[in-house]
Write a structure and sequence with these properties.
Layout (H helix, E strand, L loop, with lengths): L8 E3 L23 E12 L3 E12 L5 H4 L1 E6 L4 E12 L2 E4 L6 E4 L9 E2 L3 E6 L8 E11 L11 E5 L6 E10 L5 E7 L2 E9 L4 E9 L16 E6 L3 H14 L21 H15 L1 E2 L1 E2 L11 H7 L1 E2 L1 H14 L3 E7 L19 E8 L2 E5 L20 E4 L7 E3 L7 E10 L3 H4 L1 E9 L1 H11 L3 H16 L2 E4 L4 E5 L4 E11 L1 H4 L4 E4 L17 E2 L5 E9 L9 E6 L3 E10 L2 E10 L3 E2 L4 H14 L12 E7 L20 E6 L2
Parallel strand pairs: 1-5, 2-12, 8-18, 17-19, 25-32
Antiparallel strand pairs: 2-3, 3-10, 4-9, 5-6, 5-10, 7-9, 11-16, 12-15, 13-14, 13-16, 20-21, 20-23, 21-22, 23-24, 25-26, 26-29, 27-29, 28-29, 30-38, 31-36, 32-35, 33-34, 34-35, 37-38
Helix pairs in contact: 3-5, 4-5
């Protein structure tokens, strides 16, 4: 293993720096799991130009359901800078040892597992098949993965390794050992679901870290936790700062000729510029978003390096890095200050708590400085709209701008209380016997408008109308007849999208025996709840929402005005009852103040939710002389994800009981 081998794999003895651990193969763990590990052993060796990762797993097969997965060892490699070495594959059956490392059972494939996502990696798969594995067997597999420096900006030059300390099955013994033989110190960070992230210690060059754990029990992550809540882990990273990461990547990109390109803006097909900077800025953003297809070709250095803007423009295709770099080059060509920004789409909100590393990111966007403001655009999102005042905000938490000299992580602007959705149900009972009407209006703003715009454009019209009609019938319990196709009103500049549905209500006496109608969505019962208060609770709110039910009759209702509010550190809830002329209005709004509830505050949050839920038990009696009367009203509200829609469509709706005087 002293020098890279030509083949992707080899069969060799384990390297001398590896420490072997004794295993009691006769040990029987009292477990109902289909398998468990007697040993999971991880040992990494880091030097200046290479990283070796030795892994040994010893597992006991208890059920046939595990045989398929256990009998296949799969390693994905980049052939330019990665290799795998198999040392030992042995089956222990009834005290007998069986050598299962057969060279004829090793094959190399190119699977392109991300092809459906329009990403081509060029990675090769080395697959080792293990024959004749049976229930009751113990399987002992030992191998080493090698990463050595090449033209790639990170692999072999920068180190990040995460070791998980929780499993989906029992682990009798786990060992982690890291030998730092390089010239740079490593930072060790331990964290997970039940503790704060933080630096544990520094591992200087020439030193090693070693630790063992016993009897690890399976951990199931509950639902409704934020995406950034990890299982317990131990993470090692090359000692660095965020400015150092930023500066290093900037200089690497610059040295490879992918930055500071000035593009001839004349005769670019589908891009027509006006000469007005505000207008052209937005035209360039939309051009890259909508007219340069997303397609990743992450071969070699391109896993972490964008291609040149000229190449992306010529191909009219690229991944997030390529499209971002093209957008920056086009914007700079008209005098707009624009830079590349790295983000993490999964746990960007908490990336600030992790040790700095370029490996902590999985996405790239663009920062634009214009008229004293900082704007951020994701070039991979299609069908966006809105001028510079009404464009969607990006909920990526923090971003790292790549600039000469480096930069710190910066929080991306996101107004959680920004209005994103409005819903209005208008019931017209002026002629309820033969011509009762229902009009439903939905208004989407900012990112909700972008999501719905893309969704509507991708749906066949007749199927779309049928989906809306089905949803209206389920929401109201009424027999409805569509008076016209669903209308779409789009304000691209203000980034507001509105849909309008118009229905005739049929056979009221038949569909609502007892001469009353119940309209409900049970808002208060759908606040996210969890009895376990040890973990943060994801609220799933992306902006404020509003809903009204308006009922029009022949006579003015006799109604008592009501205004009820619940305010706390997580949300503001308000519902009102009002009337104007012959129209009775029930309205509710929900304005989020936080995206999640810390574990220590979950019980307090649930108490606040119960205040809202208690509102559903309050009755409000009203009387409508001669024609219309309401015997009770129940205010409630909830978060509902409507089937068939892109993104979370949040409805806030009141419960109303309407008594019709026939």
């Amino acid at each position: 293993m002293d020098a890279p081998i030509e083949d992707l794999y080899a069969i060799e003895v384990a390297p001398q720096w590896v420490e072997e651990h004794a295993v009691d193969y006769s040990y029987e763990h009292e477990s109902s799991s289909p398998f468990y590990y007697l040993l999971t052993d991880y040992q990494d060796y880091i030097d200046r130009e290479r990283t070796f990762s030795y892994t040994r797993t010893v597992q006991k097969i208890n059920d046939a359901s595990r045989l398929e997965d256990a009998s296949l060892v799969v390693c994905e490699l980049n052939e330019k800078h990665q290799r795998v070495f198999f040392h030992h594959v042995e089956i222990i059956r009834n005290g007998k040892r069986i050598d299962a490392l057969d060279p004829e059972n090793i094959a190399v494939y190119q699977r392109e597992t991300s092809l459906e996502s329009h990403v081509v990696t060029g990675r090769k798969t080395v697959a080792l098949t293990i024959d004749d594995l049976r229930v009751g067997d113990i399987l002992d597999v030992r191998k080493t993965f090698c990463n050595f420096a090449s033209t790639h900006p990170l692999h072999g030059k920068s180190y990040l390794s995460t070791f998980w300390l929780s499993w989906s099955c029992p682990v009798v013994s786990q060992s982690i050992r890291v030998i730092n033989s390089g010239h740079t110190a490593l930072l060790i960070q331990q964290g997970g679901s039940n503790q704060q992230l933080g630096k544990v210690q520094t591992l200087n060059a020439g030193l090693e870290f070693s630790k063992q754990w016993s009897n690890l029990t399976p951990e199931a992550m509950p639902s409704q936790v934020p995406a950034w809540v990890w299982s317990d882990f131990l993470q090692f990273t090359t000692q660095s700062t965020w400015p150092q990461v930023s500066n290093y990547l900037y200089e690497y990109y610059e040295a490879n000729g992918v930055l500071d390109t000035i593009i001839d803006m004349n005769n670019i097909d589908l891009l027509e510029l006006s000469g007005v900077k505000n207008t052209d800025l937005l035209r360039i953003v939309r051009f890259v978003q909508n007219n340069v297809r997303y397609r990743g070709e992450s071969h070699g250095i391109y896993t972490h390096t964008p291609k040149t803007p000229e190449r992306t423009l010529k191909k009219r295709a690229g991944d997030c890095k390529d499209k971002s770099n093209l957008m920056v080059a086009l914007l700079r060509s008209i005098g707009v200050v624009a830079t590349l920004v790295l983000v993490n789409s999964r746990y960007g909100e908490k990336i600030v708590a992790l040790n700095p590393s370029a490996y902590q990111f999985d996405h790239m966007i663009v920062k634009v400085e214009h008229s004293g403001k900082e704007l951020y655009f994701d070039p991979t999102i299609q069908a966006q709209a809105g001028d510079l005042e009404h464009c969607a905000q990006l909920a990526y938490g923090y971003g790292l701008e790549l600039v000469a000299g480096g930069s710190e992580l910066a929080r991306l602007p996101f107004d959680l209380d920004r209005r994103v959705f409005e819903l209005d149900h208008a019931f017209d009972f002026d002629d309820y016997k033969t011509n009762a009407r229902l009009t439903i209006r939905r208004r989407y703003f900012y990112h909700r408008a972008d999501n719905m715009r893309f969704y509507l454009n991708s749906k066949e019209e007749r199927t779309l109308w049928e989906d809306y009609l089905r949803g209206a019938r389920e929401a109201t319990g009424c027999k409805l007849e569509a008076l016209e196709p669903v209308a779409t009103l789009d304000d691209p500049q203000g980034n507001v999208l509105e849909t309008v549905e118009r229905y005739r209500i049929l056979d009221l006496a038949e569909t609502h025996p007892g001469l009353y109608m119940l309209v409900t969505t049970e808002f208060s019962n759908d606040f996210p709840m969890r009895l376990d208060d040890s973990l943060p609770l994801n609220l799933g709110m992306d902006g404020s929402v509003w809903h009204s039910i308006r009922v029009t009759t022949k006579r003015a209702p006799d109604v008592e005005v009501s205004d009820k509010r619940v305010n706390n550190q997580w949300f503001q809830y308000k519902d009102t009852v009002s009337s104007k002329g012959t129209e009775l209005t029930f309205a509710t709004s929900l304005v989020p103040s936080a995206s999640f509830v810390p574990g220590a505050k979950v019980q307090e949050y649930m108490s606040e939710v119960e205040v809202v839920r208690a509102r559903s038990g309050n009755n409000f009696s009203y009387h409508y002389p001669g024609f219309f009367s309401m015997d009770s009203f129940t205010g409630a509200a909830s978060l509902i994800r409507t089937a068939g829609y892109v993104g979370a469509v949040v409805l806030a709706i009141f419960v109303a009981r309407l008594l019709l005087d026939l």
